[in-house]
Amino acid sequence: MLGVPVLIALAGPLLAGSVQSAAAPLQPPGADFPLGTDVLGRDVLALALSGGASIVALTGASLLLSYLVGVPLALLVANRWADGVLVRVLDFLLALPGLLVLMVLAAAGWRGAVTLALAIALLQLPAVVRLVRSAALAPGCRAAVEAMTMQGEPWWRIHLGYVGRCALGPVLVDAGTRLSLVLYLLASANFLGLGLAPSASDWAVLVERNKEALFLQPLAVLVPAGLLVSLCTGINLLLDHALARRDEV
């Protein structure tokens, strides 16, 4: 389930034909267009082949950035004087509705793929830090940290090494579930005009653009939506398998 959307995202743009309007809108599947056309008269097959690269890149960049910043930050401040200050700041950020933040950015003229990735990463940061902080403050983890401290272990080995390994399992599980939320925010942001253009061939944009024509040309919605669902499900199954193998070891 993961291999198909990832393969399409990587190799699809090389195989896709033109994604410009070439026929009447919402045509059913036929010889010229195997999956029909969308609301703009574009070939749905070509759109599906070319629309995965942007959504995979933006989702991966947003998730990776939020964890690259959130995990070390949570590990470094856990049980320290800055812990309380960080929690208060995160509580404020966590209370901000994600869609409202994206709407404000769109109204202020902050657009583009880079802005979109940074904004979504910032919105995910409070939850990531709280998750890792909870793992770092678990009773079993605290006892081990106290023992390692009494043995004279350096702080980086304790917090970034041992505590980081303890938090790896929750982080992997959270990443799989958070992927769906990031995809939802990306689709919503593209609909609001923050990020990719409404005419882009991105899978999330295609679902939003063609949703009103679901019963007239269902493939224009079901194909990109199915690829997104397959991507989310495949990543979650892969992470579950990796965690099971890790527990066996």
From TrEMBL:
Which subcellular locations apply to this protein? Cell membrane
Q: Which PROSITE patterns match?
A: ABC_TM1
One GO cellular-component annotation of the UniProt record comes to: plasma membrane
UniProt feature coiled coil, ranges = none
Report how it sits in the membrane.
Multi-pass membrane protein
Q: Where does the record place the ABC transmembrane type-1 domain? A: 52-240
What biological-process terms (Gene Ontology) are attached?
transmembrane transport
Q: Which SUPFAM superfamilies match?
A: MetI-like
State the signal peptide span: 1-23
Mainly resides where? membrane
- Pfam families per record: BPD_transp_1 (PF00528)
Transmembrane regions listed in the UniProt entry: 45-78, 85-107, 113-132, 181-199, 219-239
Keywords, in A-Z order = Cell membrane, Membrane, Signal, Transmembrane, Transmembrane helix, Transport
Q: Which family does it belong to?
A: Belongs to the binding-protein-dependent transport system permease family.
Report what the protein is called.
ABC transporter permease subunit
Query: Which species is this UniProt entry from?
Result: Saccharopolyspora hirsuta
